[in-house]
Amino acid sequence: MSGRIDLARQLLKDQELAVAKQMLAKESADPEALYLLSLLHRYDDEYDLEKTVVDKALEIDGSNAYMRERLSWHDLPIFDRVVPRQPLHLPRDPKTIPSTEVLENMCFVTGADSKYFQLMVECIESIKATRLYKNVPICVLDCGLTDEDKDYLVKELHIKDIKDMATVCPEIQDGFLKNIFMRPRLDKLFPGYRYYFFIDADAWVYNENSIDMYIHYATQYGIGISRDLCAPKNGKFYGFFGCYPHVIASSLWDEELIRKAPAINAGIYCLDIQSNLCRKWAENVDVNIQERGLQNFTDQSALSLALGALNINSVLSSANNYFYPVKSAYLENNLFYSIDSKELLGCIHAAGGSNQLVKYTYYQTAALQKDGTQVKVSYRYRVWPWQDKPQIRNLIQGCTL
Q: Using CA atoms, how far apart are residues 165 and 130, in angstroms rounded to an integer?
């Protein structure tokens, strides 16, 4: 046995895992060193490096049962190798927990095409992992899903209803714009509810207490929605994205109103479909379309103007709809907080990076720890197999005996 491997064993015993890993990498022809390297790479979520180790070990001994098992795992599609997070259950504010009546009259709505199907699955899984909302109906906007996608949604995730957006507003060809047009009118797609909790497919629920707040605001003001993370420091709509004369109809352009309207992000909201706010929002969308056409920011501009017109300034903080990794997070006691406000995150939203997100690995985002150092963490709902970590740690420690 190499003296270097003996030294690596001692380093492992002393909890010097990183140094032991470097030492073992110099013994690339030794099966025992490769086994330990595999465990260490798995423990640190370095699966590309582990695959190299597995391939090397099987070149030496193609019958190695452990390495053959690891190769079979690596051959799986990435979505089958990652697993849902452990649910985060924290104390709740009794004042914001929705009543049974509200729960019986609400549904969640999300939607995607086949490109973002895996993201939408993660979104739905995060809802079903909550304690209070796991049985609330979930409805899906089909913006280009395959038959296999829809079959999975019904059989595996028990989706209540799927609406083919190709059959909705056929005069609107663009699926994204069609989605914008329908946001104040979700009851036309999925009738029978009063409260509609809409969440973009590239977002997921981190802390379900945030859902409580969205719904509580909807019951109080007609809508629960958060400020946009990228909004001006005063949180106002004036001067923000979509606050342009070519987006907002001249009949709605009221500078005094616009200056007091809040800047919001409509990627996540809970809407009381019977509220004056909902009616005003839909009216503003129609006016904007009639005069300016249907375009990006039409829905958010129309909603901000409706909030301003009805003097509604009570919106949730941006920590409840957090653009991560567009904005970094702060990690403390293994919980994610806003880097600016230090508030616990509510829903994590990949907005701004979705075109790349499908290609990303599951640990590319840096979070700050309390001491200011950065760590690699996943901003996806699915993560590398956390349930294996205690077993891997035990196997590593067992190798030092």
A: 28
